[in-house]
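Reading group handout, session on sequence-to-structure problems. Before we discuss, look at one worked example. The prompt was deliberately terse, the way you'd type it at a terminal:

> structure NAD(P)H quinone oxidoreductase

The input record follows.
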Amino acid sequence: MTASTNTHLSGTMKAVCFTEPGAPDVMQIESLPIPQPGRGEVLVRVMAAGINRPDIMQRKGLYPPPPGANPRLGLEIAGEVVACGTALADQDMPAIGSKVCALANGGGYAEYCLVPAGQCLPWPEGLTAVQAAALPETFFTVWSNLFMPTPVTKGENVLIHGGSSGIGTTAIQLVKAFGGIPYVTAGTAEKCALCETLGATAINYKEEDFAERLRELTKGKGVNLILDMIGGAYLDRNLRSLAVDGKLVIIALQGGAKAEKADLARIMTRRLIVTGSTLRARDITTKSRIARQLEEKVWPLLADGTIRPIIYATFPFADVAKAHQEMENGEHSGKIILTLESTPKPQ
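And the output record:
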């Protein structure tokens, strides 16, 4: 790490833009000036970018970016650092020419992307650009919700909804790597099979009541922790699935923001915790802290092959609308990635 600077790059870049919310075809590739890094920022020449559910929601007009965030789409990238702004106090900056993967505050669907330096992580050795780009959004989300501030401990039962998703496949592997016992829900036999190859016990939610099945699997004890991206539609069953002193963490609302029924007395009598979070609105200091924990605790597991990103499909940058449609179809397992490896180097 170094405080090298390269203050100005001239020229333009290609970037995905849209002016009105709507279907995938509202996105267009436009030519924009290459952005210049400010204090504490680095400019990354993007080689691959991850597609995530928040991108879909933002494109539809259902998830506006927080104040100060880049309004364009794209929250995770992998690429080469080509310029650095002035370092903040006590801040290390990635070296120009180094390869990184990074959690972006928007604007990742582009040939160049500005990222706070603290949100960059080393590109893990042995991984391709596609694999590196599949890491930041999912690993930041899973780590911050399941391992901060209290980590999953050996022998704890953890239920992960959407087990075959990018977040789900990441959570299974991290829970297992740190000694937890992962259970998941998924909607097809194929998705369940994938989750089981990663070390989880899978429940097909279309065929079984997951709360009843978990009671059988855990001999009536329940699970200690639930990572939930469904929301209202699952609230009552989630509460019934938790062990005494269990915790429910809600990170998305794909099943709605409201629950028609839930036994709130269960929260009191079993001392349950119900909480939730979003990642994008968190401040740079918090995201940087997550990044440093990942680098220390998780990146060695990527380097030695203990865990790996699961890639479902890649799409050329020009086919971004097809990539969004693929995610919306709901058939994927693992990550969907845009490739930009032909991004020109700056002059």
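Points for discussion. First: Residues 12-136+283-339 form a domain with the Quinone Oxidoreductase; Chain A, domain 1 fold (CATH 3.90.180.10). Second: The chain is about 25% helix and 25% strand.
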